[in-house]
Specification:
Radius of gyration of chain A: 13 Å
Largest interface: A-B, 19 and 20 residues
Order of helices and strands of chain A: H
Strand content of chain B: under 5%
Helix content of chain B: over 70%
Distance between the termini of chain A: 37 Å
Strand content of chain A: under 5%
Number of domains of chain B: 1
Oligomer: heterodimer
Distance between the termini of chain B: 23 Å
Number of domains of chain A: 1
Largest sheet of chain A: none
Number of helices of chain A: 1
Amino acid sequence: MKNPLDSLWGTVISGVVLTAVLYGVVKLMIGT
Amino acid sequence: MTMEFIQQGLGRWLHIGAGVMWVGLLYYFNFVNAAAAKAATADVTAAGISKHVMPRALLFFRWAALVTWLAGASLLGRHFLDAFLFRERAYVAIGIGAWLGTIMLINVWGVIWPNQKKILGMKPATDEEKAKARRVAFLTSRANVALSLPMLFFMSASGGLFRTPML
């Protein structure tokens, strides 16, 4: 499997996905 | 009032200014320099970039990273542990941003810079070690680009999006 960090688009998409996941985590943590 | 001005006024100014330089250079390395260095290597003009551009860019990059973190820590002040340990709801979002920024800082000083010293010939290394250092520095830099997206989101959204009436 190719490392997504080898391409710029893969890097940006990884960052966006991580943002979405962490957004959900923070919402759960603060209970809103 | 004076301390508040220094911490919240000048401190925030410094945090954002140094952060712009840090992340700006990070994006320059990844969005501009990586492809430019590859093309320059192909037509044998890469020596100038390695000798004149990278050492200067890395100097501002790593010190801007440290100044950004220190100014950020100063901004958190007595709420530093509230943020890093997620002790208060109001500091959860900024805590996530602070952790991401801290991981990025560790990547800069603990991984990228030591490997760049080998790549640029500031530290003795065999060709094999240089090739490995190039790959490690590249992937760590790319990881920092990915981490910068949620870091910037939580830094900028912590005071607005996640603010609730009871905080």
